[in-house]
Amino acid sequence: MRKEDCFYLGKIVRKYSFKGQVVIKLDTDEPELYENMESVFVEHGKDLIPFFITESLLQKGNQLRVRFETIDTEQDADAIMNSGIYLPLAFLPKLKGNQFYFHEIINFTVEDINYGTFGVIKGVNDTTAQPLFEILKDDVEILIPMVDDFIKKIDRKEKKVILETPPGLIDMYLS
């Protein structure tokens, strides 16, 4: 499985028992959706390796205690410690309305209610305090904060994001 075809679900953060159980810290607002999974992909170097789950128990909110089929000892568990956990994109719950996954809006056209169509989303920068749309117009990169008040509509059918940005924000990049 390619990493591009998956989403990051969490990370193995600690061992639970001497029989190889581990605890996965889930990176989700809805950990209960992932309590009864049959398998996951465990990151090993640049590869994603499928691991089958024989037991799992949700604990402490977003921590999932797991027993994998082939992990039976502490040494086995040590070999996968701090590994990322991934699932295929098809396992993501469908979002509606103006909710969206960052990967979902890549290559969507961007239109501002007052400015008109002005570019295409090439990425999302989520390393800043406020995530930013990375929009490309010709050779110019435009960064627009992902503020709920700015996002008027996510049109999945037309592959378009409709915004209402403050006056001058777009012009600042294009003048």
What's the structural blueprint in terms of helices and strands?
Blueprint: E1 6-15, E2 22-26, E3 39-44, E4 47-59, E5 63-68, H1 74-80, E6 84-88, E7 109-112, E8 116-125, E9 132-137, E10 140-145, E11 151-155, E12 160-163, H2 169-174
Parallel strand pairs: 7-12
Antiparallel strand pairs: 1-2, 1-6, 2-5, 3-4, 3-6, 4-5, 7-8, 8-9, 9-10, 11-12
Describe the 3D structure.
The chain contains two helices and twelve strands, in the order βββββαβββββββα. The strands form two sheets. Strands 1-2-5-4-3-6 form a six-stranded antiparallel beta barrel. It is mostly beta strands and 175 residues long. The protein has helices at 74-80, 169-174, and strands at 6-15, 22-26, 39-44, 47-59, 63-68, 84-88, 109-112, 116-125, 132-137, 140-145, 151-155, 160-163. It has two domains: 3-91, RimM (Elongation Factor Tu (Ef-tu), domain 3); 102-174, PRC-barrel domain (SH3 type barrels, Roll), CATH 2.30.30.
